[in-house]
Amino acid sequence: MKKVKVFITLKESVLDPQGQAVMQSLHNMEYTNVKDVRIGKYIELLVEDSADVAEQVDTICDKLLANTVIENYRYEIEEEVHS
Amino acid sequence: MKTAVIVFPGSNCDQDMYYAIKDGLGEEVDYVWHAETSLDGYDAVMIPGGFSYGDYLRSGAIARFAGIMPAVIQAAKEGKPVLGVCNGFQILLEAGLLPGAMLKNKHLKFICETVDLQVKNNDTQFTKLYDQDEIIRIPIAHGEGNYFCDDATLKKLQDNNRIVFTYSGKNPNGSRADIAGIINETGNVLGMMPHPERAADALLGSDDGLRLFQSILNHWRESAHAAYTS
Questions:
Q1: Measured between alpha carbons, how far is B38 from B75 in angstroms, rounded to an integer?
Q2: How far is it, in rounded angstroms, from Cα B178 to Cα B166?
Q3: Is A47 helix (H, G, I), strand (E, B) or coil?
Q4: Measuring CA to CA, how many Å separate A82 from each of A1, A42, A43, B87?
Q5: What are phi and psi of B50, to 5 degrees?
Q6: What CA–CA distance (Å, rounded) separates B42 from B68?
Q7: What domain of life does the UniProt record list for this protein's source (chain A) (predicted)?
Q8: Which of A47, A70, B115, B131 sees the fewest Cβ atoms within 10 Å?
Q9: What is the ipTM of this complex?
Q10: B32-83 pLDDT tens trace
Q11: How far is the C-alpha of A19 from the C-alpha of B149, rounded, in Å?
Q12: How many structural domains comprise chain B?
């Protein structure tokens, strides 16, 4: 099995009002050295082993997990270790 | 004219849409459950507002892959009128039937109020009964109506007169170019955040929305008549 860790972030050109609100709160807490906050999503997939896992994950991200009009994604594929 | 109102788990404006067509227009209308796969026999398709699938992942992202969606896309390709309101608009964007995407409202608030809209293009099958640049009063109710598209897409929308409604006076959600509703290239798919179905009877405070449905009906009658006589 493979564990796929998918990170989805808003594109640089897209404003993030949620991130701005969190930054404002950090400033209110006197963390004025925090200069930007961007909020994204983290998704884990557990996928059966196959030769084309990466290719599949690309398609899954393009079609469903991310909206590429406003979001970028990257992912890491790890061997799932059974404990 | 026989209309399908698509119902997803979490749709909540489906009944308003149904009654706008049934009582407002006096036309035949059915609810069509999202798991159905055919829209044969329907002349128009309405995707109502709500929170399909709890807005999980992104608004409209999960609904876009519902069983009925290939039939909705097919209906759009056949040139049938397809109207997406609020969450319906978000679903049309996710399905790629309209360009762009929705972001959270600029000030993060869920906004529920009646706003002034300007009719920017009255030469569509959805807006024929409005005057060009007319100001109409239609309610909005959304947390993610901040329409976003890149510069190239915006230019294309503007150059081809595909921005149908804009917010007039103040922009409630931060949408690009004050966009409240856009139409596709072929002019038969309209997505809009405001709710015309909630303004389809003067008893509800405004009947400005009813003319949108009447426009669709008139267009359908004219084209049905044209097909019959040709």
A1: 10
A2: 5
A3: strand
A4: 9, 22, 20, 41
A5: 140, -155
A6: 13
A7: Bacteria
A8: B131
A9: 0.84
A10: 999 999 999 999 999 999 999 999 999 999 999 999 999 999 999 999 999 9
A11: 20
A12: 1
Where residue A24 sits, what CATH number does that domain have? 3.30.1280.10
Cβ atoms of B190 and B126 closer than 8 Å: yes
In the numeric block, which tokens belong to residue B82? 């397809």
Q: From CA B27, how far away is CA B18, in angstroms rounded?
A: 10
CATH number of the CATH domain containing B56: 3.40.50.880
Interface with chain B: mutation pick from A10, A38, A61, A67, highest number of B CBs within 10 Å: A67
Q: Which domain holds residue A74?
A: 2-79
Burial class (CB in 10 A: 0-12, 13-18, 19+), B148: buried
Rounded-to-integer distance, Cα B134 and Cα B116, Å: 10
Strands B82-85 and B44-47: parallel
Write the CB contacts of B50 (distance below 8 Å, at least 6 apart in sequence): B8, B10, B11, B12, B13, B14, B86, B87
Structure tokens at B166: 């804009």
By the CB < 8 Å criterion, does B150 face chain A?
yes
Q: How many domains does chain A have?
A: 1
